[in-house]
Design goal:
Elements (H helix, E strand, L loop, with lengths): L2 H30 L3 E5 L1 H17 L3 H24 L11 H27 L5 H10 L5 H19 L1 H16 L1 H15 L6 H6 L1 H13 L5 E5 L4 E3 L2 E3 L4 E5 H6 L1 H4 L14 H5 L19 H18 E5 L7 E3 L3 E3 L4 E6 L1
Antiparallel strand pairs: 1-9, 2-5, 3-4, 6-9, 7-8
The structure holds protoporphyrin IX containing FE.
Protoporphyrin IX containing FE binds next to helix 6, helix 7 and helix 14.
Length: about 350
Amino acid sequence: MTICMIYREWLVGLVQESTVTMVNSWKSIIEAGGGIADIKIDQHMRSFSGDVISRACFGSNYSKGEEIFKRLRALQEAASKRVLATGIPGARHLPTKSNREAWALEKEIKTLILQVVKERTEAGYEKDLLQMVLEGAKSSDLSRDDIDRFIVDNCKNIYLAGYETTAVSATWCLMLLAANPDWQERIRAEAVEICRGQIPDADMIRKMKQLTMAINESLRLYPPVSVVSREALKDMKFGDIKIPQGVNVWTLVTTLHTDPEIWGPDSYKFNPDRFANGITGACKLPHLYVPFGVGPRVCLGQNLALVELKILISMILANFSFSISPRYKHSPALHLVIEPGNGVDLLVKKL
Ligand code: HEM
């Protein structure tokens, strides 16, 4: 067995555990509600993806990982408020109340991460992402302070890149399946036939073609990351447009993903069948579909994210049926990711 396969099995195992926890929590809520429940699903999806990323990152130091991630989430909220609230260059250096709160959180996060690192170094080897970061730091020729910063920054990056994006993707996909019961039924039939009452594993999710098509379509219509950006490292020219060195070029993902020139006249419609022959069959050129970005800086966690989405959604479909609740108000909003402005409310029944 190669190292890659060992890691894949380990990751699939921990996604399965987090999924079972999520599904059991819905079963309890539905039982308490007498067979049906009106659930705002956003927070449940966040707990699921937070659980996966804490375990993937911090292995057996997982409960301390959760503490760190709780503070990172608070920091992320504070940061998005600060950016939206002022917009004044340099304002993030002023000792305002919210800045002081953010600085205190930063300090706590650093202390907690370095505490886990110390425990880990004393306890020995584990196969999690923290271990990979530590080994990356060890093989560099950075100074002690820079090593600490490297470790703290990488742990923060993994969390910020992998938590909200996966949670919001699952939320949008479930909303679309609730609004399209024919597709919900098709994917459920596929999941039930392939899994036969078992928890889906890597082989099973590979066989789930309809589910893959629906996830692709959901990431097309609601890509969590709205902009893929690149800085011009030298003066460049695209056609007639001159781009001076240092300028950031933003590609608007939603615009690319819904252009009728690229996707055809039904570009705003939920139609997973367009992915029946993969991404190349769905649009004019495959690099116009970029939910995970493109090129050498493409998302490092895309395989993990797809495993998470496939195991979670197929398990939910095998255990529950659901429709849109009358409480739901459709209002996609751009915060750090494109998320449902008022959350997603589903009426969920146990099968
Ligand atoms: C559905 C979920 C996810 C979506 C839609 C997503 C999307 C993206 C996008 C659009 C980028 C920028 C790529 C570019 O500039 O070309 C990115 C980068 C990145 N993502 Fe994800 N991501 C997801 C989940 C994850 C997960 C679960 C992890 C980690 C466990 C992760 C780790 C990263 C990292 C480390 C980068 C930076 C790569 C680099 O700069 O070299 N992502 N992601």
